[in-house]
TrEMBL record:
<dbReference type="GO" id="GO:0009725">
    <property type="term" value="P:response to hormone"/>
</dbReference>
<feature type="disulfide bond">
    <location>
        <begin position="150"/>
        <end position="155"/>
    </location>
</feature>
<keyword id="KW-1015">Disulfide bond</keyword>
<dbReference type="InterPro" id="IPR027465">
    <property type="entry name" value="TIMP_C"/>
</dbReference>
<dbReference type="GO" id="GO:0051045">
    <property type="term" value="P:negative regulation of membrane protein ectodomain proteolysis"/>
</dbReference>
<dbReference type="InterPro" id="IPR008993">
    <property type="entry name" value="TIMP-like_OB-fold"/>
</dbReference>
<dbReference type="GO" id="GO:0031012">
    <property type="term" value="C:extracellular matrix"/>
</dbReference>
<dbReference type="GO" id="GO:0046872">
    <property type="term" value="F:metal ion binding"/>
</dbReference>
<dbReference type="InterPro" id="IPR001134">
    <property type="entry name" value="Netrin_domain"/>
</dbReference>
<dbReference type="GO" id="GO:0005615">
    <property type="term" value="C:extracellular space"/>
</dbReference>
<keyword id="KW-0964">Secreted</keyword>
<dbReference type="InterPro" id="IPR001820">
    <property type="entry name" value="TIMP"/>
</dbReference>
<dbReference type="GO" id="GO:0034097">
    <property type="term" value="P:response to cytokine"/>
</dbReference>
<protein>
    <recommendedName>
        <fullName>Metalloproteinase inhibitor 3</fullName>
    </recommendedName>
</protein>
<feature type="disulfide bond">
    <location>
        <begin position="26"/>
        <end position="118"/>
    </location>
</feature>
<dbReference type="Pfam" id="PF00965">
    <property type="entry name" value="TIMP"/>
</dbReference>
<keyword id="KW-0732">Signal</keyword>
Length: 211
């Protein structure tokens, strides 16, 4: 059994629009949570892959060209290979070689980066401008905030460090508006609230219930 199997419990998010395959089940997670809970967050292009005999169905090892690192400088400053289960039923991830640049998130075990369907992995050209800004600095500012999922009404925040995530009410199974355009950031006074804009966050002009 490879270290990736433990990641299914630790991290849940979208991966290329999939919620799982057969036995692979992932919990929804806002991209900011995926960022803050990952050891490694990078932008990269896949330039090769090979199947190695590791785990019950083998492990796919992708060779990548790292374009930019957003998180993980102390864990692994430069990533050359990423590992994932070969079977999609074990949350293995399928990536195109020499075709797209990807936003990749994952965990580090024994000096290796592991990722899969339950990590936030997306084609770079599919990310919104707000998500790219989040990767550069906004998500990092909100790692001390908590994004609270709301699956059905009524639901409320219970502490000042929470933002209520309601995408699932209207977009269950897919990333929604808050995921694509908002970050949960601590404002003046210590309260966390959703933020989207060009100027630095300011509690005096941001409605804590927005969106």
């Amino acid at each position: 059994m490879t270290p990736w199997l433990g990641l299914v419990v630790l991290l849940g998010s979208w991966s290329l629009g999939h919620w799982g395959a057969e036995a692979c089940t992932c919990s929804p997670s806002h991209p900011q949570d995926a960022f803050c809970n990952s050891d490694i967050v990078i932008r990269a292009k896949v330039v090769g892959k090979k199947l190695v005999k590791e785990g019950p169905f083998g492990t796919l090892v992708y060779t990548i060209k790292q374009m930019k690192m957003y998180r993980g400088f102390t864990k692994m400053p430069h990533v050359q290979y990423i590992h994932t289960e070969a079977s999609e039923s074990l949350c293995g991830l399928k990536l195109e070689v020499n075709k797209y640049q990807y936003l990749l998130t994952g965990r580090v075990y024994d000096g290796k980066m592991y990722t899969g369907l339950c990590n936030f992995v997306e084609r770079w050209d599919q990310l919104t401008l707000s998500q790219r800004k989040g990767l550069n600095y906004r998500y990092h500012l909100g790692c001390n905030c908590k994004i609270k999922s709301c699956y059905y009404l009524p639901c409320f925040v219970t502490s000042k460090n929470e933002c209520l995530w309601t995408d699932m009410l209207s977009n269950f199974g897919y990333p929604g508006y808050q995921s694509k355009h908002y970050a949960c950031i601590r404002q003046k006074g210590g309260y966390c609230s959703w933020y989207r804009g060009w100027a630095p966050p300011d509690k005096s002009i941001i409605n804590a219930t927005d969106p």
